[in-house]
Design a protein that fits this description.
- Helix 1 packs parallel to helix 3 and helix 7 packs antiparallel against helix 8.
- It contains ten helices and ten strands.
- The strands form five sheets. Strands 1-2 form a two-stranded antiparallel sheet. It has a two-stranded parallel ribbon with strand order 3-6.
């Protein structure tokens, strides 16, 4: 397959994934959150809410598909990687606009129906949610040692074969599996791939730990049930991160051995392998999201409700534009997303902003790594 065809296939698959997830997302979030607005559980089947969701689906299908088709045509005519990236960003932004329009409608409905005045607001806190308990909610961190051993193997192989390594080392491959970027062999440049692997371990280990660090969202109506769902939710996604890391480390090891000529290069494998891994990860995300839901909302676990007339604290005002949590009075750094699967940061927390800045700088430095090592 040509580079252009592979690029188009990848773009279509990723856009399709984005659209499907966005269509399903209102059904995957916690049932008391509808398009980022907290509502009483007894109002979940309110006819106006159903109508808002139907219009959201119709709007997404009627506009996203034609827009995606136009972007596909532009990418086909230009064969531009930059437009490929911009097209994906445009698709995500368009989906956000659709979400925000529905978010505003639900917010207006909540105000008109006075839902925040109907019940007593209650906040449930698990006082035993300490470091030792948090570590039991996620997969064992010892799995990350396997990734470090894989990296150590890569370094050993490189050093043991240093004299036989080629003078120019490929560090990037096109979507068709052929090298399109090289660096000269030096004692520092040969560690480009292991450094990338270490960086990947650091990023995913941070994501893994943030699952445990994140603030618990405990339902005031049925705290026992929500705690159990949250436990399973965190365990499943932490295992997903561990699994993804191991798969990517194996892929990077193959790329490393290929780039140094230690195993025969095969352009078909080089193009198909990342594609297969990407599709596998995407399908796993979809299955996990459908089976688990945000915070475990789709899990079939039943506990007797003990506080049926209670209503979770109305914190809509802390969510800006329906996506960004900003609460300087909340010491939490990580919190569950209102719309989406996973966690976000508290943009009102200085430590959270500092962490975000460090991550951005680290990613920027990794982009400059080839020039630094060459």
């Amino acid at each position: 397959m040509t580079n252009k065809v592979l690029m188009l296939i990848t773009f279509v698959l990723i856009c399709g994934f984005i659209i499907i997830i966005e269509l399903l997302m209102p059904k995957l979030t916690r049932k008391e959150l509808f398009f980022g607005i907290r509502i009483p559980e007894k109002e979940i089947n309110h006819p106006t809410l159903r109508q808002i969701y139907k219009k959201y689906v119709l709007l997404t299908l009627s506009l996203s598909i034609p827009i995606t088709a136009i972007l596909i045509l532009i990418i086909y005519l230009t064969n531009s990687v930059a437009l490929f990236s911009l097209g994906l960003i445009a698709t995500i932004f368009i989906q956000y606009i659709f979400y925000y329009l529905s978010h505003k409608k639900v917010k207006m409905l909540k105000l008109s129906e006075h839902w925040n005045e109907q019940n007593e607001e209650v906040v449930i806190i698990d006082t035993g949610y300490t470091g030792s308990k948090r570590s039991k909610l996620i997969a064992s961190q010892w799995w990350f040692l396997v990734s470090l051993l894989i990296i150590a193997f890569n370094i050993f192989i490189i050093l043991a074969n240093y004299d036989a390594l080629p003078n120019r080392i490929p560090i990037h491959w096109g979507i068709d599996g052929t090298p399109d970027q090289w660096i000269d062999k030096t004692f520092s440049s040969i560690f480009y791939m292991p450094i990338l692997q270490l960086f990947l371990v650091g990023i995913l280990f941070f994501a893994y730990k943030s699952i445990a660090w994140a603030k618990q969202q405990i339902s005031a109506t049925n705290p026992e049930e929500s705690l159990e769902k949250s436990r399973i939710f965190r365990l499943r996604w932490s295992r997903f991160i561990v699994g993804v890391l191991l798969i990517l480390q194996i892929m990077f090891t193959y790329l490393n051995l290929t780039s140094f000529g230690l195993i025969d290069s095969n352009s078909v494998i080089m193009s198909v392998l990342p594609f297969v891994i990407t599709i596998t990860i995407i399908l796993t995300v979809i299955v996990l999201a459908l089976r688990t839901g945000q915070g475990g909302s789709r899990l079939k676990i039943k506990f007797r409700s003990s506080m049926e007339k209670s209503f979770d604290r109305d914190d809509d005002k802390n969510w800006k534009l329906g996506l960004f949590y900003f609460n300087p009075d909340d010491p939490s750094i990580f919190i569950e997303k209102r719309f989406g699967i996973g966690f976000t940061i508290n943009f009102g927390n200085f430590t959270a902003l500092l962490i975000l800045l460090v991550l951005i700088i680290a990613i920027g430095l990794m982009a400059l790594l080839p020039k630094v090592l060459s």
